[in-house]
């Protein structure tokens, strides 16, 4: 039962606990263990061979020497690659199951799931390396990782995808890198000044992450003209309370015409119902395929 521990729950005795394991073969496994070393699964094994998923961990040193990494999901004869940025900001890309990534791999795309500075998994100091005025360094990490992945994939066409805060990074890449053909934002945060002056400014955790300086917010807000905005797909829930859909609509209006919008009226922050999740996965894979279908290699 391979996997990465997501959470440990003690079961009323100091020698008895349950662990939730993430791995790419299924949404999760739950195992129970005790001091004697006996481990038993309480969720049936998916039976999938994890090696079939072609996972590879890659680590680099960013522009200033800070370590960043990604998990690469390979695809046979890839016709393109998708570079993904997680939300949080202090979450972590892991080799876990993702139906959206599975759909992209099935459609013929490699997926690079990136951890920039500020991600979890490397201790409290690392998690704070993007706080306040340091946020711009995380954007530079995203750009640096994109450049390295572009070299690694040897000319295949590229798309970026970001979830929540990760959409801010993805949009910055689209704004700054002409060789990136498209970008997808899911429940995205795109403009820190707009967000902090409306929703985020009332939340202590947002102030700790993003600071109180409008100059710092503006420094990491992507500026997309109409041609670049036409490369973006914005996906948002109609009742999102974390990043309200009005934020995405205001940002799209400032970018100009060309932004594709997909709304799930009854979804909040993220897309969670099985029916809507299936629609999302199919729509993203189809949209990326359409955007990258005019040739395998970029110019």
UniProtKB/TrEMBL annotation:
One GO term (biological process): proteolysis
Signal peptide interval: none
Domain of life according to the entry: Bacteria
Keywords carried by this UniProt record: Hydrolase
One Pfam family here: Peptidase_S9
UniProt domain Peptidase S9 prolyl oligopeptidase catalytic: residue ranges: 98-293
SUPFAM superfamilies named among the record's database cross-references: alpha/beta-Hydrolases
Single GO MF descriptor: serine-type endopeptidase activity
Name of the protein in question: Peptidase S9 prolyl oligopeptidase catalytic domain-containing protein
